[in-house]
Design goal:
CATH superfamily of chain A: MetI-like
Shape of chain B: globular
Distance between the termini of chain B: 19 Å
Number of strands of chain B: 17
CATH superfamily of the largest domain in chain B: P-loop containing nucleotide triphosphate hydrolases
Radius of gyration of chain A: 20 Å
Structural class of chain B: alpha/beta
CATH topology of the largest domain in chain B: Rossmann fold
Number of domains of chain A: 1
Order of helices and strands of chain A: HHHHHHHHH
Radius of gyration of chain B: 26 Å
Strand order of the largest sheet of chain B: 6-7-8-3-9-10
Largest sheet of chain A: none
Oligomer: heterodimer
Distance between the termini of chain A: 49 Å
Number of domains of chain B: 2
Number of strands of chain A: 0
Strand content of chain A: under 5%
CATH architecture of the largest domain in chain B: 3-Layer(aba) Sandwich
Helix content of chain A: over 70%
Chain lengths: 215, 418
């Protein structure tokens, strides 16, 4: 059976797995972004605190994904829970680092001006600092997404959802019919999804970064 | 626009001691800034002038002392609310790059809860006030403006909530000298219309002389070396420090304080570009002059006919004669006029009206005479002023002694100083 025959014969299955993969990555990114921004807001005003935040998230990234997923099984079992936890942890570093760099990089004169015209702390954060840090933050989100797109495939090891199942099934049955086809279908699916996500982020950037600060 | 007059600002024993520093950055400053006046804080870097200013809107919290605006103690108000009532303009404009010019200006009015339509009208009005076309500029982003235009928008934003008090921290420090000159003229014009109380910080004494109704010369720890009118400081610096700060050329600086309209603009022999030599000579005779100023068909000065040329006559005079290089308007400072006279080389400069049309001339002799008179008058005024201050202090001493007796804290309301 050729690759395309394989894909068309298993169209529905592949479609569901692609959807699950995208959905898992998207949801984990939302959670990671929320956590990352909160961590960044809590730490960016102190050099020490931001170093600790970046250091911690960087350490997480050095743990091999296979190992982390495996180690989470005893605590969280199989399936969605360990997948989400692992993906969120991996996604944090680029988001936290870029958000901190973005927030700390806002010109102190602008913050002084904002205070001077009578904005309170929350307004300065929401109306001045976050919008100005947004391009940097968005870049962090893009990098994170690319990264966990691949890691999400490995989550199939803990019975997580997504295209990893194709890859793992294929690789486990090497030599048998359609094994290579399955592995290829899963891999290409991940690549295509990654490209689509990136295009979506580029569009989001176009729509949300104000013209006044667009590079 | 409502004619909101500025409020009187009083600083009493105002002190700022930054943690970890041995001496106070600002040490017991007592100062009254009269309503509706532009008062310039000037001093070397590190003199605490910016710190003093920033305590007025409490961007820096004072360690001790009192600040009152219109006899209201502001040291216990909510600083955020206080700042919405005090305009604030800084160096490099401080405009938010992700917001349009209109959005930047609208910030304070919106925080004050103005209606959408009122805010919009206000933005148009303010852009006009600072000399920018609303249709062209309100939807632009700051980076699409020149430095000078950004600074104008910065001033518009500071004025947006119609605050009685404006704090300006070296607002024109980062623009080129020519633009700075224009912005200063513009501020003078705006202040002439609005009569806000403006505290203006700069380290440029010339700027202080040009803008200030009064100047506070500060030395280290914000100690007041002299607080007086520019004229008085120029003619009678209180001590060596002030004299050093005034620098050389006080008489030249004095020239920036007066305008061409303040001196006599004399009529001069003029003729049209196409007039024949007989007409030109007649014009010269009429004024007893040996020079003639040629005007074009719209009465704009074009060429100077020097004595030689008037005598010699001949064809093509209008083409070969000395071209008018520089003219001044009635609003130009005498310093500009002197500069133009020196550039023109003929000992005089043509004064023109709003459309460039000839009004008269100012000569070097007129200028010299006027400067002598002004300096004399300044010295006289400074002497009187010193006497007055002495008398005031005496009155205060007496009042304080009485108050100590009565425990009655009410100040008599300060009358409008304009």
């Amino acid at each position: 059976m050729s690759f395309w025959d394989y894909v068309s014969s298993r169209r529905e299955q592949l479609w569901i797995e692609t959807w699950m993969h995208a959905s898992a990555v998207f949801q984990c990114m939302v959670i990671a972004t929320l956590i990352g921004v909160v961590v960044a807001i809590a730490t960016y005003r102190s050099a020490l605190a931001s170093r600790i935040a970046i250091g911690t998230t960087a350490t997480v990234l050095t743990i091999p994904s296979f190992a982390l997923l495996g180690l989470l099984i005893p605590m969280l079992g199989l399936g969605v829970a360990p997948t989400v936890v692992a993906l969120v942890l991996y996604a944090l570093l680029p988001i936290v680092r870029n958000a901190i760099v973005g927030l700390a990089g806002v010109d102190p004169q602008l913050v002084d001006a904002a205070r001077g015209i009578g904005m309170n702390r929350v307004m300065i954060l929401l109306r001045i600092e976050l919008p100005l840090a947004w391009p940097a933050l968005l870049t962090g989100i893009r990098v994170s997404t690319q990264m966990i797109m691949g890691i999400a495939a490995i989550a199939a090891y803990v019975s997580g959802p997504g295209l990893g199942n194709e890859i793992f099934t294929g690789l486990a049955r090497l030599g048998s019919a359609n094994a290579i086809n399955a592995a290829w279908a899963g891999t290409l699916g991940v690549v295509v999804l990654a490209l689509l996500f990136d295009a979506a982020y580029a569009l989001l950037g176009r729509l949300t970064v104000p013209r006044g600060i667009r590079g | 626009m409502a004619d909101v007059t500025g409020a009187t600002i009083r600083l009493e024993e105002l002190t700022k001691h930054f943690p970890g520093q041995k001496i106070a950055a600002v040490d017991r400053v007592t100062l009254e800034i009269p309503a509706g006046q532009l008062v310039v804080f000037v001093g070397p870097s590190g003199s605490g002038k910016t710190t003093t200013m920033k305590m007025i809107n409490r961007l820096i919290e004072p360690t001790s002392g009192l600040i009152s605006i219109d006899d209201r103690d502001v040291t216990h108000l909510d600083p955020v609310k206080l700042r919405r009532k005090i305009g604030y303009a800084i160096q490099n404009s401080g405009l938010f790059p992700h917001m349009t010019v209109g959005q930047n200006i609208a910030l304070v009015p919106r925080m004050l809860g103005w209606s959408r339509s009122r805010v919009s009208t206000r933005v148009d009005e303010l852009l006009e006030t600072v000399g920018l076309d609303s249709v062209e500029f309100r939807n632009r982003y700051p980076r699409q403006l020149s430095g000078g235009q950004q600074q104008r928008v910065g001033v518009a934003r500071a004025l947006a909530g119609d605050p009685p008090v404006l704090l300006m921290d070296e607002p024109f420090g980062a623009v080129d000298p020519i633009t700075r000159g224009h912005l200063q003229d513009e501020l003078i014009r705006i202040q002439h219309e609005l009569h806000k109380t403006i505290v203006f910080v700069t380290h440029d004494f010339d700027e202080a002389v040009k803008l200030g109704d009064k100047i506070v010369v500060l030395r280290e720890q914000s100690h007041i070396a002299q607080y007086d009118t520019p004229e008085a400081i120029l003619t009678n610096p209180a001590d060596e420090f002030v004299a050093g700060f005034v620098g050389a050329g006080a008489a030249l600086k004095r020239l920036t304080l007066s305008r061409v309209r303040d001196v006599e603009v004399k009529p001069f022999a003029t003729a049209g570009m196409r007039d024949d030599i007989a007409t030109i000579r007649r014009a010269a005779r009429e004024y007893g002059a040996d020079e003639v100023l040629l005007l074009d068909e719209r009465r704009r000065p074009t060429r100077w006919l020097r004595r030689e040329e008037v005598r010699r006559g001949g064809a093509g005079l209008a083409v070969t004669a000395h071209e008018v290089g520089d003219t001044v308007t009635r609003d130009a400072t005498l310093r500009d006029a002197l500069d133009a006279i020196l550039t023109e080389g003929g000992g005089k400069v043509a004064v023109t009206g709003p459309r460039g049309e000839y009004i008269g001339v100012v000569s070097i002799e007129t200028l010299m005479g006027s400067i002598q008179e002004m300096l004399e008058a300044d010295r006289e005024a400074a002497r009187e002023h010193l006497d007055e201050l002495e008398a005031q202090r005496e009155v205060q001493r007496v009042e304080e002694q009485e108050r100590a007796g009565h425990e009655d804290g009410a100040h008599p309301a300060e009358s409008d100083q304009r």
